């Protein structure tokens, strides 16, 4: 995860300390799972990791997940999302961030690019606290960091069209 994403996690959770993750909660493990799912029609989504702030309730967490979307985005996003110019589509709200990108890679063989949706969502009984604009930027930053790490791990051509840093100005 980028240093920017680490700061963004503090904006989202209010904490800079987090519970230790399981050894399999890595982008590398998720990329292997995605590659396996690509080769099998049985699975088309999975977890990257869950993030818990130190001493938080188990029901208060961030989840980073991936899906194979089998095509570029076709529908309009829900009104609570801000559209950002990253990858094929990037959306951010005060409680979620989504980055979709297309990946051409030897790890995902085929004539067409593989379309991947990466989401970071907050699961909490509480509403998000803080400035909605800062929270929206924070979710976009964390989602971009996971998406870029996934694109690099999969060795996507041109990093799946993702820039090295998140673009937070609306499209």
Instruction: Give the strand tally.
Output: 6
Overall residue-averaged pLDDT value: 85
Number of structural units classed as domains: 1
The main β sheet shows up as: 6 strands, antiparallel
Strand content: 15-25%
Write a concise keyword list for the protein shown above.
171 residues; six-stranded antiparallel β-sheet; 3 helices; 24% strand
Helices and strands in order, then pairings?
Layout (H helix, E strand, L loop, with lengths): L2 H11 L13 H13 L5 E7 L9 E8 L13 E3 L4 E5 L2 E8 L10 E10 L8 H23 L17
Antiparallel strand pairs: 1-2, 2-6, 3-4, 4-5, 5-6
Characterise this structure.
- The chain has one domain (3-161).
- The protein has 171 residues and is α+β, with helices and mostly antiparallel strands.
- It is built from three helices and six strands, in the order ααββββββα.
- It has a six-stranded antiparallel β-sheet with strand order 1-2-6-5-4-3.
- β4 and β5 (96-103) form a beta hairpin.
- α1 (3-13) packs across α3 (132-154) and α2 (27-39) packs across α3 (132-154).
């Amino acid at each position: 995860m980028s240093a920017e994403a680490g700061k963004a996690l503090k904006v989202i959770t209010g904490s800079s300390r987090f519970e230790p993750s399981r050894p399999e909660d890595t982008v590398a493990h998720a990329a292997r799972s995605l590659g396996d799912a690509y080769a099998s029609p049985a699975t088309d989504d999975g977890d990257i990791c869950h993030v818990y702030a130190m001493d938080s309730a188990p029901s208060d967490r961030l989840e980073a997940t991936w899906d194979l979307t089998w095509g570029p985005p076709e529908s309009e996003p829900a009104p609570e999302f801000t559209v950002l110019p990253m990858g094929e589509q990037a959306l951010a709200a005060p409680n979620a961030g989504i980055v979709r990108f297309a990946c051409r890679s030897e790890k995902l063989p085929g004539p067409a690019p593989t379309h991947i949706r990466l989401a970071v969502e907050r699961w909490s009984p509480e509403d998000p606290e803080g400035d909605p604009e800062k929270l929206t930027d924070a979710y976009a930053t964390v989602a971009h960091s996971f998406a870029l790490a996934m694109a690099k791990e999969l060795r996507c051509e041109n990093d799946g069209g993702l820039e090295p840093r998140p673009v937070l100005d609306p499209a």
